[in-house]
Write a structure and sequence with these properties.
This protein is α+β, with helices and mostly antiparallel strands. It contains four helices and eleven strands, in the order H-H-E-E-E-H-E-E-E-E-H-E-E-E-E. About 17% of the residues have low confidence.
C-alpha cells in the first residue's frame, strides 16, 4: 500500500509539473511575440516555433520517465545475444568525427569539395525511456566558404570567379554550436525491442558562436537522424546526420536570408 501511494504521488507531481511547464513556456513565447518586430524573417519565426516544440517535449519527459529500479534496457553483444541491464545504464557520453559543409551567402560560387571541412562533436545525455531521450552536445570546429568582402579571408582567390569586379576569395573561421536535442527511438516506438539497430530522429535548439573578428552569435535550430548499432552492453556505434539553421550574417556577410550547415559524423556512445 505504501509503495502504491508513493508511486501515485510521484505521478501527480509529474502531471502537475508538466502542466505548469507547458503553461509557463507558452506564456513566455506569447509575451516574446508581443514585442517582436513585424520585419522578423520567416526563418527566425520557424526557429522560434521549433524552440517551443523542443521545450515542451523536454517538459513532458519527467512524466514519461519510469522508475529507474524497474526499467529494463535490451542490449546486444557482437554475437547479437541479448543482455538485459537495468536503466542505470541509460546515461551516456558520446563523441564523433566527420565532415561538414556550410551554406553561406557566396559559398555556392565555390566547389562543394573545397568547402568540406573537418567536424567534431561530443555529448552527454540520458534515455528517460527506451524510446525518448535527450542530450547536450557541442559540435563544430572550422568551416570553409567564399567571401566577397574579404571577411575571414585567407587571401586565396577562387579560380574563375573574379567577374565584374566582384572578387571572391576563400574564407576559413572557427565555428561552434552548443545545442540540446530531444531524441525519439523509432525502433522502440514501434515495439521492436529485440533489434540491435536503432534510428532516432531528433530536434533541438542551441547557440552558435564565431569567435574570430567579426564575432557573431545566434540561436540555432538543429535536426537530424542518429543511427546506432549496439556493439555490447555498454557501447554503441553511431552515424549522426545533422542539419543546422541559423540567422544571416554568421559568416560575416549579410545576404538577406538565413544560413545553414550539414554535418555527418561517425562515433561511439558509452553507457553507464
Amino acid at each position: 500500500m505504501l509503495g502504491a501511494e508513493i508511486e501515485n504521488n510521484r505521478f501527480k507531481f509529474r502531471t502537475r509539473w508538466t502542466a505548469f511547464y507547458v503553461r509557463s513556456v507558452s506564456c513566455c513565447f506569447l509575451l516574446g511575440s508581443a514585442f517582436c518586430e513585424t520585419e522578423l524573417t520567416n526563418q527566425l519565426i520557424r526557429m522560434k516555433k521549433l524552440a517551443l516544440l523542443v521545450l515542451l517535449a523536454i517538459g513532458v519527459l519527467p512524466l514519461s520517465a519510469k522508475n529507474s529500479t524497474g526499467e529494463k534496457r535490451v542490449e546486444y553483444s557482437t554475437e547479437r545475444s541479448e543482455v538485459a541491464t537495468t536503466s542505470a545504464h541509460s546515461w551516456f557520453v558520446s563523441a564523433g568525427v566527420g565532415a561538414q559543409v556550410y551554406f553561406g551567402d557566396h559559398d555556392k560560387q565555390m566547389g562543394l569539395g573545397n568547402r568540406i571541412s573537418a567536424a567534431f562533436d561530443v555529448a552527454v545525455g540520458k534515455w528517460f525511456t527506451p524510446a525518448i531521450g535527450a542530450r547536450l552536445m557541442y559540435s563544430g570546429l572550422q568551416v570553409k566558404g567564399a567571401t566577397q568582402s574579404g571577411v575571414h579571408s585567407d587571401g586565396k582567390p577562387i579560380s574563375g570567379k573574379p567577374w565584374h569586379g566582384y572578387w571572391l576569395t576563400e574564407q576559413k573561421y572557427n565555428f561552434s554550436n552548443l545545442h540540446a536535442d530531444v531524441m525519439f527511438n523509432l525502433v522502440q516506438l514501434i515495439g521492436r525491442r529485440e533489434s540491435a539497430w536503432s534510428a532516432s530522429p531528433y530536434v533541438g535548439i542551441g547557440w552558435v558562436h564565431v569567435g574570430e573578428s567579426p564575432k557573431a552569435n545566434g540561436v540555432s535550430g538543429n535536426f537530424g537522424l542518429l543511427t546506432s548499432y549496439n556493439l555490447n552492453s555498454r557501447l554503441d556505434l553511431n552515424l549522426d546526420v545533422r542539419g543546422v539553421l541559423m540567422k544571416d550574417g554568421m559568416d560575416g556577410e549579410k545576404g538577406g536570408r538565413g544560413e545553414g550547415m550539414m554535418t555527418v559524423t561517425l562515433g561511439v556512445s558509452y553507457f553507464f
